[in-house]
């Protein structure tokens, strides 16, 4: 769960797809529920709109963190994310990033997420 909120490390394609779809589904679900509550309580319309806006904003932040980690897997800096702000360029980048294989082996952002981590008896984080 902590990995979901960190821009460090790499994210393989499959995990990127799973996380992105999950985030978007959660945002849509919360948006739909909040809209129903907002219509039921017409007196608190501004409060409901602010809540929906907050949920959408947090969903966008989580989705962008996943994009940055996917860029890291292709050995690109997270600053490349700024190109997603360009209206036409973002479509090509989204498609390319979703289907291009990541860097094989270790790169400057960490080990290959496809390769299992080798643990030794002296490793501080040996799984139980």
TrEMBL record:
Record's signal peptide: none
Record key words, sorted: Membrane, Transmembrane, Transmembrane helix
Q: Region annotation Disordered: residue ranges?
A: 106-128
Q: Which GO terms describe its cellular component?
A: plasma membrane
Which is one Pfam family of this protein?
A: DUF805
> What's the superkingdom here?
Bacteria
Transmembrane ranges, per UniProt, are 16-34, 46-67, 79-100
Descriptive protein name = DUF805 domain-containing protein
Query: What species is this protein from?
Result: Hymenobacter wooponensis
């Amino acid at each position: 769960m902590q990995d979901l909120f960190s821009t460090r490390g790499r994210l393989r394609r499959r995990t990127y797809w799973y996380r992105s779809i999950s985030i978007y589904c959660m945002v849509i679900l919360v948006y739909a529920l909040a809209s129903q509550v907002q219509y039921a309580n017409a007196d608190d319309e501004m409060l409901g709109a602010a809540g929906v806006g907050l949920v959408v904003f947090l969903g966008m932040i989580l989705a962008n963190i996943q994009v940055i980690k996917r860029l890291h897997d292709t050995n690109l800096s997270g600053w490349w994310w700024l190109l997603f702000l360009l209206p036409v360029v973002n479509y090509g980048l989204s498609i390319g990033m979703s289907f291009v294989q990541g860097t094989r082996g270790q790169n400057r952002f960490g080990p290959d997420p496809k390769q299992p981590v080798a643990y030794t008896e002296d490793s501080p984080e040996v799984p139980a």
